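thought: fold this chain, then report.
action: predict
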Amino acid sequence: MGRMRRKGTLARAAAAAAVLAAATGLGAGQAQAADPTLLIQVPARYYAYAADEGPEDGDLFLLHLNLEAPEGEEPLAEDVKLTIDASSLKDKAVLKATNGSCADPEKDLVFTCEYASIDGRTSVQPFSIKGADGVKPGYAGMIDYTATASNTPAAEAKTKVFIDGPKLAERRHQPLKDVAPGSTVELTPGVANHGQLPADQGAGLKLYGADGIKVAREHSNCHYKSWSDTSAYCTFDTPLEPGAAYEVSAPFRFTVSDELMYGNIGYDTWAIGSGDPWEYEEPEDYDQQGSGAPLTLNLVDDIGFEDFGGHTELVTTQRADFRAVTGTVEGRVGDTVPITLGAQNAGPGSMDLTGYSGHGSGTYEVTPPEGTTVTSIPFPGEEDDWACSPAKAGARSYVCGIDERFAGGEKDTLVFNVRIDKKVEGAAGKITVLDRDDYPARDPEPENDTATIPLKITGGSGAGGGSGSGGGPGDSASPAAADGSSPTGSSGTPAGSMASTGARGIALIAAASATVLAAGTAAVVFASRRRDRG
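observation:
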């Protein structure tokens, strides 16, 4: 059980309580305490699905037991007992007990949960809930909570339960394309209530941008993090009526970094007094309040609003120079030698496709020199011998994925273990870096995307024991030939490799996946594990 994170002073905690109360409808006394205190953290309101909507059993009801204390203390609540009295919902809602730490109710929908101790925030999921057949939308009843412990004062809380409720949908936004690096963009959020009940306490909005997209701190009804510029929480006290749509009175402004190539801006909305927008965050992190005029909500036509619509993709005109990282297979016949191969992003643009569909920032294809065999391509620090596809020794070529985060100046490399089988005069392999068709690097210097992998035989026959040397993490991209082209070996393109133009990363991934799946192995090119970052 994890301990609650504590930082700052009690004054800071009090400020956080005000943020939490504004965003959720929780009372400030439930969010902060001057002495070690057991807390019950619940929504002031809960909107349950109607009988004919949502999952068959409804939503899984969630609340939290927490323990708050002054700075520097690590308290422990012992012999904790939580009683959840939902008897007023009888015949109005259907509650089904879960197989958690709470005992099934003996009668009248009263649940009991017991814990030997609580030392931080503890999630409690006692039942699933939805409206009973024939119950009309509206207020259904109250859930009462009481928590006791042998060494802390008792705690109480309440939740008003409504059947059905407001259903908030966000505005659908078009992508922001051809954005100049370092420029400022704007986004005007909108929200509509597609439910049968009003959000009569107003609405909250969480705004977030990807790394490299900074939101301006401009509005007094918004709170921001002092240590991060990518998100904000805002609240609006305007009731959202059923069937009505609204937009904020002024756009949010975002500054785009010079390096950003692809990013996202999004927002979520919720009816104040319901739900827990802080489920995965802490309100004390949002410790700065905007100083400008507050935003308001203005009525607009209900056109272009949909569930989870508050999202837009941002595409800049920035470019990234992908380069092949190569080295020499050097040793005696019979030796198995390591060589570091991969890709480098020479910038100026940075790739971050975390959370995007597809896999990684691109791929690179490696064809070893004639007369050699790749025996393994291990993930660093792991027992898996194959970080690329196909996952077998002796293939004519291999396709490896580049990490989703590929910043300017970074390398993404792997160590290839290569056995030298025989001496072949003029033998050279090849490595080609390919970006994605859907999220291209717009490479300004495509000639350095391809490089040779020379084979250099030294001495007589080896013992096959792994002696010899190869390229290391510090190897640079292959130098260009005197005429400015990238060297390709004596025959231009090694037999069996893919041409350096036309075919792109997604085609390579698909082809490699088909090969691997046909062999009954995992498509390791898709694995999201970090390589040597160089």
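thought: worth noting. Residues 1-18, 27-33, 464-530 have pLDDT under 50 and may be disordered.
final: tokens above.
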